[in-house]
Amino acid sequence: MTAESAEGASIEGVFLDEPTTADLRAKVVDAWREFGTALAELLPTLEPGGHVDLTLDPTASGTGMAVYSVSIRVLDGGVVEALATGNAGLPEGYRMNRTSIADLVALGWSPPGVLAGSGDSFGLSSTREKAGQLATVVARTLRDVYGAPHPAFLVYLVHDENDEPIDTAPLGTARHEPSIDAELSLDDLDDDGTLAAALADAADEVVPLDERVRTVVATMSKTTVDQLQYDADGDIGIRAGSAMVFVRVRDNPPLVDVFSPILTEVEPTEQLYVKLSELTNRMPIGRLYCAQDTVWASIPVFGRNFQATHLMLAVQVMTGLADELDDRLHGEFGGKRFFGEGDKPVPAKEPVSDDHRTGMYL
What we know:
globular; 12 strands; six-stranded antiparallel beta sheet; 11 helices; alpha+beta
């Protein structure tokens, strides 16, 4: 089979248009930009004593007991201070090396202990007027130093000095902390009957497809429809385990596309196209295809006579595909998994001794 015929078997036989889903990097960049903008808009609205805690979810990142986080606090006089995890707070094997430490300092963080009250954390002092700059530093720290591949892999909590939660607008696609333990399960997604009730109400009137999809996705994510976030393409992002799943609603024809980036920065070869074609032929639903340098998985859900359980199943299947195939295809064809070993924070390679304690202290 030639590269052209294999590619045609997995792409041209389906009527979905791929160009808008092909540029994964642009989608990720847009998501981080939206996160930074939302954070910059939030900080000036907080009263003194307000806190914003941002954490790379260890259950998604595979970092075990290592918790990479940034905490921002608003003080009197318009002062805003931030603390970022240092090596003293990380278990051995997940501590940052000299390059990562240098990156933190280059971003503007002061070493642990320099900022009053910072303790073992890196510290940074700013003001409300510079909230945009601080938000940029925080986003780059979480993304470039701590290794978060997408804001959806972050959990956050906004609270006052008494740890009482503060109701705020969403921080882009980052997940509010109470929803961190949400599981995508057909058995318990609707255990309180909310989804069934909502869809029953929708059946009594003509409700647009996109509204019905939002109801289902919000229920699966244990959040509200108003809390859902969309990227520049209008896609809803769902962080499920170590996978990133996108949901897109199309009007003509009525269709819901559930898709996920399996592998990126991969070289398109005849062997890759043949492999994707073989895997697609063995899949009961869905397909695999390569667009530009990214391997995608896609499962369409028909919008006519839309069934909520079909969308739930598609998301579950997509999550399983991403978890199963990224390692297999990476081992055979290289490239980068959406959240693979190479994307995690790099542990210090230098042995720590009494003569060289940079890795431990900073």
